[in-house]
Amino acid sequence: MRPDWGPSRWPGRLAAGVVGVLALGPLVPLLLAGVGRGLGAADAAALRFTLWQAALSAGASCLLAIPLARALARRRFPGRGLLLTLLGAPFLLPAIVAVLALLALFGRGGLVNAGLAALGLGPFSIYGLHGVVLAHVFLNLPLAARLLLAGWAAIPAERFRLAATLGAPVGPLLEWPMLRRTLPGAFAAIFALCLTSFAVALILGGGPRATTVELAIYQAIRFEADFGGAAALALLQYAVGGAAALAAWRLGRGVSLGGGLGRPVERWDAEGLGARLVDALVIGGAVLFLLAPLGLAAWRGVWALGAMPEAVWGAAGRTLLVALGATGLAVTLAVALGLRGGALAQGAGALPLAASPLVLGTGLLLLVRPHVALADAALPVAALVDGLLATPFALRALAPALAEAEARHGRLAASLGLGGWRRLLLVTLPLARPALGFAAGLSAALSAGSLGAIALFAGEGQATLPLLMARLMGSYRMEAAAGVGLVTVALALGLFALFDLWGRRARA
Amino acid sequence: MLGLEGLVLRQGSFRLAADLVVPRGAAVAVMGPSGGGKSTLLAGIAGFLRPEAGHVLWDGRDLTPLPPGRRPVGVLFQDNNLFPHLDLVRNVALGLRPALRPGRAERAAAEAALERVGLGGLGARRPAELSGGQQGRAALARLLLQDRPLILMDEPFAALGPAQRAEMLDLTRAVLGTRGATLLLVTHDPAEARRGCELAILVAEGRAHEPAPVGGLIDDPPPALRAYLGRG
């Protein structure tokens, strides 16, 4: 029970209300415009493709993550800590940059096809279902590996010792039960993420056989101005996304990303040469798969910096503005919700996970279109949508730190008569500063790399960096896109690093 | 004068009843077995726990509806008595006024209070840069400035060694004695109770008893305390 001398409740209620209005409000225009419009064959195909690619992507990510997480859990080697940190990075990597990186390796003019041509083999095309799945595995394998690694780390070291003294097989005794607990959550989380994938499908998918619902929404609005059809698709996406988010949330309770990733456990069952060799191959292969495309893209990007269009600087400025706006919104909402705690805050914090950028964007577009020129609303809408979608992650990063600050020093603050704003500014936020910096950095990086609502609204000279990249890649100006990609990554990761550093500078 | 009138405090399934009077200016040890309700009693008086029934009175005024910061009560907890991100001057000055930044006069008063507890010149340090004993002194300096007539201490020096604990207790009495403050001190240590307090409240079996002379209570303990003190 929350004590009545704790932080006041109304900011949390207000924040929950704001989240509710922002996440559910766009449903109203969608329902008004979309209900009663039947779904055509193309829409059904988009839904089938969306579900199928998400299932394949989540399945492949989880399957590949099992040997990777096992190898990381039982081996010590130089650079292990760095590798674990890098496994956290793809979450911040703009999806469009990941696509660009994969194109550098597997694309038409990429290294793989150059090699195949030298062997006299036909070109490999990355476009279509397998390309979409490849990109999703690239983006989500690290997440899956981290989730499973946390599961491995949660097995007490004593159990491995006990198994070793008994000569019992570790797999069926300890590892498989753990996987049975963690795999469903990891699969559901990645499935939900892949459902809302837009940037990947925009570049690598398309056409009647590889269009996701998100992409179909975008095409209905931008190419056909079919707002009713877009609304019907958005409702469909909201229903599917909501169900998946709910499932991920229910199944994910056995999954944690919490500590315990630090030290490998002493193991007696995997000392054989064969096991070592397998682990080395798995880790090496994963590193190569994850880093080679990025390294190649970075290398090309550096050489292409001169080939960037003039528009990149304006786009960088707009991206920065949107990211800062989104960060302000997400962090404010997360602080208010985190201090409130309880079921209301948890529910409000999870609600945006059901939404997607294109769905929210479509709803807002239907709302503002009669009143304002879309181009005028582009940047505020982008900041609003990005901020809302970042709120669950900011809340997750902040809530434990806020709760700890209150648990440790709430009574002292109350006994000194520190309440309201003064308590927040003098005690709670400074004590939670590391988490505050991390949450802000996370929100800023997610927004800076996001390609979503902005694609529906932006006019010719209004692109953000990810949208500029998508336009360049759409017209096969890969060199220019590579340069812009480097700027995009620098901005997204730079913002994250700056905020995070600010948070960690807290002494005490 | 502190009065607890038909006070009933409940934490989960635990219930504590108190009906007693503590004279003004007294130093009272609060003793009893672990889990007996000593901390619950202090939380009720400080305002961290809303009573199920009854009243907390100070000089006849009902404190029950007041939030912790508005009660004439200063508190020292077992730990976390200082904000780790603020220097000593700012920590101590918070005793005067819950302000974001202390004014010049408030800083001077905080420096003077630090001087009183033997921490002169250390005002710019943060708690982490101090020893446990020094942290306790800094918290005392804030109590000194707070000028609240009723002081509650919940095993405040539990983390210190015996010698330091005795020293802190003497300092506490010296500092508070000059102000005529009333002290309620939760302690497990009969010697500490004897050294620092003249009265003792026994808290056991869901009840806080009337204060009695500390010597009598320790020398001839009732059964509940006898078992706890290990002289069964």
Give an overview of the whole structure:
The complex is a heterodimer of chains A (508) and B (232). Chain A has two domains: 1-36 and 308-508, MetI-like fold; 46-302, MetI-like (MetI-like fold, Orthogonal Bundle). In chain A, helix 14 (311-340) runs parallel beside helix 17 and helix 21 runs antiparallel to helix 22. With 508 residues, chain A is mostly helical. Chain A has helices at residues 10-24, 27-34, 41-74, 80-88, 95-106, 111-118, 129-153, 157-166, 170-195, 199-204, 213-222, 227-251, 273-304, 311-340, 342-350, 357-368, 374-415, 420-431, 433-448, 453-457, 465-474, 478-504. The longest helix of chain A is centred in the last third of the chain and has 42 residues, at 374-415. Chain A is globular. Chain B is of the alpha/beta class and 232 residues long. Chain B folds into two domains: 2-72 and 148-229, P-loop containing nucleotide triphosphate hydrolases (Rossmann fold, 3-Layer(aba) Sandwich); 82-146. Chain B has helices spanning 38-46, 88-93, 104-116, 132-146, 162-177, 190-196, 214-219, 223-229; strands at 2-11, 14-22, 27-31, 53-58, 61-62, 73-76, 150-154, 182-186, 199-204, 207-208, 212-213. In chain B, strands 1, 2, 3, 4, 5, 6, 7, 8, 9, 10 and 11 form an eleven-stranded mixed β-sheet that branches. In chain B, helix 3 crosses helix 4 (132-146) and helix 4 (132-146) packs parallel to helix 5 (162-177). The interface between A and B is medium-sized, with 23 and 28 residues.
